[in-house]
Amino acid sequence: MLRYLYADQLHLHPRLAESMFRDRAQQFRDRLRWKVTVHPDGTERDEYDALNPLYVIWERPDGLHGGSMRFLPTTAETMVNDHFLSLTDGVEIRSPFIWECTRFCLAPDAEPRVSAALMLGGMELGRGAHLSHAVGVFDARMVRVYRRLGWGPIILGTEGEGRDAISVGLWAFESEVRPRLLGRSGISDELSRHWHARAFGDRRQVALAETG
Predict the structure, then answer these.
(1) pTM of the model as a whole
(2) Exposed end of the chain (fewer CB within 10 Å): N or C?
(3) Domain boundaries, the chain
(4) How far apart are CA 114 and CA 189, in angstroms?
(5) Contact 44/17 with Cβ under 8 angstroms?
(6) What is the pLDDT of residues 178-195, one digit of tens each?
(7) CATH homologous superfamily for 2-203?
(8) Phi and psi of 37, rounded to 5°?
(9) Contact 75, 27 (CB under 8 A)
(10) H helices within the chain, ranges in order?
């Protein structure tokens, strides 16, 4: 199932949270060889996890992490503005209608449909909060994933070539994309709406839009 959890809610789901941060360490440090901070308990966290981000998480039937993404409003600190301005010609991306998405992570044994489920979760979040776009930094391996899912970004800038290329892009929260994500994830319209409504409800949705 999809869960939408702020960082200050993760203590309510300790097994899910710990397995998410452990899977992040395995993916970003062990598999991709990124220079990330892995703590003695085997989890990967950075300074942006301390800013009470919103996580979109695929929870497996056993309660463990299947995949996740992290969202932060661009009106506050973000990775793209703090570390990747070279990809945007020095132009900061700041708007109450644009949120940053980072740390797209899959569990080592995740089902193929989990990627689509996470993207669907991002779509539901954006539409529910009345956002226009998500912004993110991604490497070359993800281009094929986004193309396969049918929701590719508008690329704003790229550095490097081939497998070493890093880009920043914008994803538009357009209604015509949602049916494709529903189909590829195998999730019904009703179930996806239910998961989102369970997390936010009407009042939380309004607050999310106002503080985005």
Answers:
(1) 0.92
(2) N
(3) 2-203
(4) 16
(5) no
(6) 999 999 999 999 999 999
(7) Gcn5-related N-acetyltransferase (GNAT) (3.40.630.30)
(8) -95, 115
(9) no
(10) 14-24, 79-83, 113-128, 140-149, 178-185, 189-211
